[in-house]
Amino acid sequence: MDLGLTGKRALVLSSSRGLGQACARALAAEGAEVFMTARSADKLEETKRAIEAAGGTAHAFGADLTSQADEIYAAAERAMGGVDILVANTGGPPAKMAADVPDADWTPYFESMVKPVFRLAGLCLPGMRQRGFGRILTIASSGVIQPIPNLAMSNTLRSALVGWSKTLASEVAKDGVTVNVVLPGRIRTDRTGELDAANAKRLGKSVEEVEAAATAAIPAGRYGNVEEFADVVAFLASTRASYVTGSLMRIDGGAIRSV
Question: SS3 sequence, the chain?
Answer without folding.
Answer: CCCCCCCCEEEEECCCCHHHHHHHHHHHHCCCEEEEEECCHHHHHHHHHHHHHCCCEEEEEECCCCCCHHHHHHHHHHHHCCCCEEEECCCCCCCECHHHCCHHHHHHHHHHHCHHHHHHHHHHHHHHHHHCCEEEEEECCHHHCCCCCCEHHHHHHHHHHHHHHHHHHHHHHHHCEEEEEEEECCECCHHHHHHHHHHHHHHCCCHHHHHHHHHHCCCCCCCECHHHHHHHHHHHHCHHHCCCCCCEEEECCCCCCCC
